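HUMAN:
Just now I want nothing more than another pair of eyes on a protein record. I would be glad if you read both lines and explained how they fit together. I have put the entry right below:
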Amino acid sequence: MPYIICYDITSNKTRKIIHDTLITQGEKVNLSVFELDLKECKLNSLIIKLNLLINPKTDTIKIYKIPTKTYLNTITIGTNPISTNYI
C-alpha cells in the first residue's frame, strides 16, 4: 500500500536519523516528505521505530495512506517525477 510520510523534527540529529531510516524504505519527494510502498507489517515496524526516535512533545510525524487508484493517478510536475501516470 502506498503511503506519504512527512515530519517536523526539532533536533538535527533525530531529523537525520529519521531521514536515513525513511530513505531506505522509499523515495524522498521533498525535504521532509517521503513516498513509501509498504506491506502493513513493515509499516507497523516502521511506526514503532519512528515512535522511539522522536520527542512527542516537540516532534510530529504524519503518515497518509494513499489508495492505490489515487496513487496511480498522481501527476508530478518538476524535476522529481515519482509518478507520471495521467488521468
In short: Helices lie at 12-23, 40-53, 68-72. The first strand starts at residue 2 and ends at 8.
